[in-house]
UniProtKB/TrEMBL annotation, chain A:
The lineage of its organism: Bacteria, Pseudomonadati, Pseudomonadota, Gammaproteobacteria, Pseudomonadales. This is Branched-chain amino acid transport system substrate-binding protein. InterPro entries: Peripla_BP_I. It comes from Pseudomonas duriflava. PANTHER family: ALIPHATIC AMIDASE EXPRESSION-REGULATING PROTEIN (PTHR47628:SF1), PTHR47628.
TrEMBL record, chain B:
GO terms for molecular function: RNA binding. This is Response regulator receiver and ANTAR domain protein. Pfam families: ANTAR. The modification 4-aspartylphosphate is found at D60. Residues 13-119 form the Response regulatory domain. It comes from the Bacteria. GO terms for biological process: phosphorelay signal transduction system. Residues 125-186 form the ANTAR domain. Keywords: Phosphoprotein.
Length: 379, 198
């Protein structure tokens, strides 16, 4: 009989960003089911889920609850604010967090495996694409916490290097859905593109309201995001005129065969990058446990560093220098209810969380910016 | 070199501004061990700054712009507190006038060194600001000195070097600054001109 290894999922399936939490949790569950069924591992996985309901003050207690059951490996959470909040508990309890969401960088904890992309793996390629395609006048909107602040600060730095212009910047608290005044301003003097770092319900409401306003004016305004996935399309609805571009390590269109397999096995789900990254993270853990025969975080990390692991995102390599994963990077545009891949960065992109190896002066080559042009619908 | 002096911890306290429960508990415990008194304030509560040695301002829950503005005007050192290492937070701290950043989780070893760094840099900034203001004043008074020199050269039929030497010598005799002497001379000249014309 095989040993059972318990792992935890610290993911909010209620609250303002529950779509992302659901997607990530489904990815973890599917990975556990499949790995247990395949039977090639020396152990069986058991997934224990706790739901902090999107309330920041609940994450610490939820983590301690998992730790008190002897769980040392936790998958989640979604926001940087909640990840930051639990790092002291992780360090104190000798646990390892498997974080699979895009985040703003500037972190390198020994208690975290960063399986989600940081800005050099998402935002910078996306901005490079947008500056070439749309021009250099940008409006920045974000949720009022570190993800929005830092992503938009970096965007400002990039725009500055490219001689672009930040037309405006706005932050709203999580859960805010009233954008009428802002949208009036945006459609009356449209920028070349909007960078949207809003999260959850705020993002959905903003996109729906902006799409309505743009449709009235026949304005195909591009809106860029690094956290918009298939998992949120139900919350957004069908866009009429807005051009939604997103960037991430996975979209359904990247690997139709994998999607077909998952569909046949588990039924219809949004197979977003939250899903695929968490699914891949469980595979990374299982392979590392198989290699090391121990669930001690140091042994798991050491085993991970030795060789890449084959996953749904490709052959993933975790850097022993900063615990970040090299990831693929795709830029996609929403067309109907599907993201279509517009661009893929070549190969796996190593993470540079502190941007110490990233030269932003390359954006100077984008200085011959095309003037902002918006397609208008002619009836 | 500006000597970094120990603040008057016996008669002063730190203000812990907009800190969340966890940070507050951690800071209070740490400050108690250091023998430094502290008070917690939230959301621009009205407090006097007379006995305040420094402010520790949590950026992640910041809601006291007025208090921070008053502290800056009074030259009270500010320490930004954040759980983020991001440049946006560092910039935010600088914009609020912070001269040091304390990162969460707070460790016992980091509180005193961060506090003293904030105090020391605040002093250096104040010194540099005072120097800059004095130099600006000197630059602003250059036209006045030129006027006084020109008047002396014309009135006494002397060259520029001698005119300057006379002003300098007057300055030393009267124990007044060069600018003050020039001010007095130009004033006297104006009064004389008005007298002639009337």
């Amino acid at each position: 009989m095989r040993d059972t290894v318990s792992i935890g999922a610290l993911l909010s399936t209620d609250g303002t960003y529950h779509w992302m939490g659901h997607n990530a949790l489904t990815g973890a569950r599917h990975a556990v089911i499949e790995l247990n069924e395949q039977g090639h591992l020396d152990f069986e996985l058991r997934l224990e889920h706790v739901n902090p309901k999107g309330r920041l003050e609940c994450y610490g207690k939820a983590l301690v609850a998992l730790q008190s059951k002897g769980i040392r490996h936790v998958f989640g959470p979604i926001t940087s604010a909640s990840r930051k909040d639990i790092i002291p508990n992780l360090e104190q309890g000798g646990s390892l967090l498997w974080y699979s969401c895009p985040y703003e960088g500037f972190e390198s904890s020994e208690s975290v495996i960063y399986n989600g992309p940081c800005p050099n793996q998402t935002l910078l390629p996306l901005l490079r694409y947008a500056l070439d395609a749309f021009g250099g006048q940008a409006f920045l909107i974000g949720s009022n916490y570190v993800w929005g602040w830092e992503s938009n600060r970096l965007a400002q730095e990039v725009l500055d290097a490219a001689s672009g212009v930040v037309c405006g910047e706005k932050y709203v608290n999580l859960g805010v859905t009233a954008f009428a005044e802002l949208i009036d301003a945006l459609v009356s003097q449209p920028p070349a593109f909007v960078l949207n770092t809003l999260v959850g319900e705020s993002s959905h409401a903003f996109l729906r309201q902006l799409d309505r306003a743009c449709t009235i004016r026949g304005l195909a305004l591009p809106v860029l995001s690094c956290n918009l996935t298939e998992g949120e399309l139900a919350g957004i609805g069908i866009m009429q005129t807005l051009r939604l571009l997103s960037c991430g390590p996975f979209f359904e269109a990247v690997d139709p065969i994998f999607i077909q397999q998952q569909y046949l096995r588990h039924g219809p789900h949004p197979y977003s990058h939250y899903y695929a990254s968490t699914y891949a993270a469980v595979h990374l853990f299982a392979e590392a446990y198989q290699r090391s025969g121990s669930d001690a975080p140091e042994a798991i990390c050491a085993a991970l560093y030795t060789a890449p692991v084959q996953t749904a995102l490709g052959d993933l390599e975790v850097s022993p220098r900063n615990n970040h994963t090299s990831l693929p990077c795709y830029i996609a545009e929403l067309q109907g209810s599907q993201f279509i891949i517009l661009h893929a960065e070549p190969g796996m992109q190593p993470a540079d969380p502190y941007l110490t190896a990233t030269d932003l002066s390359e954006f100077r080559t984008c200085r011959k910016l095309t003037p902002a042009r918006h397609l208008r619908i002619v009836k | 070199m500006i000597l970094l002096k120990r603040p008057d911890f016996d008669n002063g306290q730190l203000l812990l501004v907009d800190c969340d429960e966890r940070a507050l508990a951690s800071l209070q415990k740490s400050l108690q061990r250091l023998g430094i008194a502290s008070s917690a304030v939230h959301s621009d509560a009205s407090v006097g700054l007379v006995d305040v040695l420094a402010l520790v301002v949590e950026l992640d829950h910041f809601a006291s712009p007025q208090l921070v503005s008053e502290a800056n005007a009074a030259g009270v050192p500010i320490i930004a507190l954040s759980q983020h290492e991001t440049l946006s937070q560092i910039q935010r701290g600088l914009d609020l006038g912070a001269t040091a950043l304390l990162n969460k989780p707070i460790t016992q070893g980091s509180v005193y060194s961060t506090l003293m760094m904030a105090v020391g840099l605040r002093e250096r900034l104040a010194h540099a600001e005072a120097q800059s203001a004095a130099l600006q004043e000197k630059v602003a008074s250059r036209p006045l000195v030129a006027q006084a020199l020109a008047w002396l050269m014309v009135e006494l039929d002397i060259d520029e070097v001698e005119a300057y030497e006379r002003i300098r010598s007057l300055s030393m005799t009267l124990n007044k600054s060069l600018e003050e002497v020039c001010h007095d001379l130009t004033q006297a000249h104006r009064v004389g001109q008005q007298g002639v014309g009337s």
